[in-house]
Amino acid sequence: MTVKKGWSKLEALKNIAMFSETENRSLLRKRWLDLLGEPSFVRSDCPPAAYMVEETSLDGFDASLWKQTTEPGHQQTLILLRPHKLSSSLAPCAVIPFYHPEPSAGLMPDAGKNGLKSDPDNSLEKAMRQYGRHLVERGFVVLCTEAFPFNTVPDPGGDPFAWWGAAAEKIQRNHPRWTGLGKLVHDTQCAISLLLRQPCVDATRLLLMGHSLGGKMAFYTGALDERVTAVIASDFGLPWDSTNWDAPWYLGEKRPAATSDFNHEKLLALLAPRPFFLISGEADSVKSWEMMRNAQTYYALYDKTELLTGFDHASGHTPTPKSLDAAFQWLETVFA
What we know:
Structural class: alpha/beta
Order of helices and strands: EHEEEEHHHHEHHHEHEHEHEH
Distance between the termini: 26 Å
CATH class: Alpha Beta
């Protein structure tokens, strides 16, 4: 296990055309947005209004349950975590997208039915995915989110992916020009809007952090939403053929070919020069790091190659304590 540090800047890269402030960057952004597609409703006609359902005080932080409109007739459930004591008048903040908000917050499932209670299960695998709890304990104001299948259709039962499939079918019926991944990004952006309306949050230190599905959501939203100032993504699969990017709840048939030059190096180009940290272990491996090296091209244009880095624990899908320690130490330097 080794920390992947920033690669040396190649002076030859200075000879390539700047894309950061030119039409090239705008065209690249448009291409990614076209891939995600558009909903059938006009976004400005459906502002992401939100209200608090309940609030409680836990050890070291307050937790509150929220409902937020994401599209006409649909709401997502969110859990907001706030430290009891802030280290400064403005605190760094983070959105943690995942399947459900409770695991990220370190809370018991079904918070809306059973109240906001700490999860007594302290197994290592659970602890390593409690990104919200880790960050609130580090002084962050944190918003943990849920993925759209769980607020779009009832659980059909049976196969674990049946819920995802049924929700993706409904999205396709209601929004035939939208992808599931486009919906995931939209909902995460709604969560960002809620977080930034909270008192005492520092909009200049806004992190997106996610694991697996949540890593996909954090990566795409971070690249396409310039309110985001840093991204940490864990084992989500940079290469097109590394995971199920062609699933209907992601890109379906719109997923580019594995050999396409329209790949995630180009999405890292849009994220540049904002900091990005990859935690890899299984879905991300050798090919992912080759793509990270290639994406140094874009960070070199800003003399910021050290901001594109990560940690390869090479020990399976779940992040390890050392990989999270490396990510949080890196975060301290970029948010200093």
